[in-house]
Amino acid sequence: HADTWGNPSDPIEFPAAFGQTMTEKEAYIRELDEKTGASLKLKVLNPVGRVWTMVAGGGASVIYTDTIVDLGFGEELGNYGEYSGNPSREYTEIYAQTIIDLITETPDIAGRSKYLIIGGGIANFTDVKATFTGIVSAIKNSVEKLKKAKVKIYVRRGGPNEKQGLELMKQVGEETGIPIEVYDRYTHMTRVVDLIKQAEEAGGV
């Protein structure tokens, strides 16, 4: 019915899948998702996983997840989710902060590195600079946590204002000392997963 379907003041509540309960963080992101015209999705798969993703676009998130599993990191995959529809800088920062809080909550018991993929295809209309400004703010708010959890960040993105957005990522890595590798549209989208595999084969520390 037009008066209830999509009405932000009286949204339809969809229950969690049978046999599943939402974590506090999942419920929080779902609440944000309902408030914005963009899309914010999060499912926690393994709270102590060492490979986490913050991916722009539902299609890209599927491709990244498949590649992570194909390369042998399925059991280490911490989450599944995506942000899309040109979310605001503020909403992107909150989404990024939530994922950073999750990946840093439990440092690896064996002292190994964790990996955060900030990935996506080549956007048509999502402003890469605006969304990355939000992500950079979350990184700056979490420097000590990220270092304690030994998080390495791999970035691959293309789209409107990508040059400025990617430069922001390079700068925050240089300023904070957090290892951040940045790649543009000319690097294959899932190349960063190969780089994680190489890092693991080199010792993962």
UniProtKB/TrEMBL annotation:
Residues 21-195 form the ATP-citrate synthase citrate-binding domain. It holds the Pfam family Citrate_bind. This is ATP-citrate synthase citrate-binding domain-containing protein. It comes from marine sediment metagenome.
